[in-house]
């Protein structure tokens, strides 16, 4: 793919704010013809810059108001240990994000739960069974100050 130019950046910024915007409205807002705008969006999709479109849900309205961050330290850093852990954690439907970290923990997980009982269930059924785990620390978010999915472009 060629470089992302200023017009592409404006398209990406607008789509991140409203993924349901029509091509006609998007074209109007960035001052392009509808066909030129559509070609640019298609090019960004085909290049994988736009990897998909999703609906963002309100955690509270789907009874998952509590965010838990789980720091995990493994027994080692060998590829087979990392691979086994990553395969297993991908299979846990409650885990929204898993990051390999540099720092005090090897991995950081983000989980949204109904309450402490729900987290206890997830811990008992899934987290405690993850391979290669030496230590686990969980922190409950008291309040989300702000959240965004928009990547600065």
TrEMBL record:
Keywords: DNA-binding, Transcription, Transcription regulation. GO terms for molecular function: sequence-specific DNA binding. CDD domains: HTH_ARSR. It holds the Pfam family AsnC_trans_reg. The keyword ATP-binding does not apply. Residues 4-78 form the HTH asnC-type domain. One of its GO terms (biological process) is regulation of DNA-templated transcription. This is Lrp/AsnC family transcriptional regulator. It comes from Paracoccus siganidrum. The lineage of its organism: Bacteria, Pseudomonadati, Pseudomonadota, Alphaproteobacteria, Rhodobacterales.
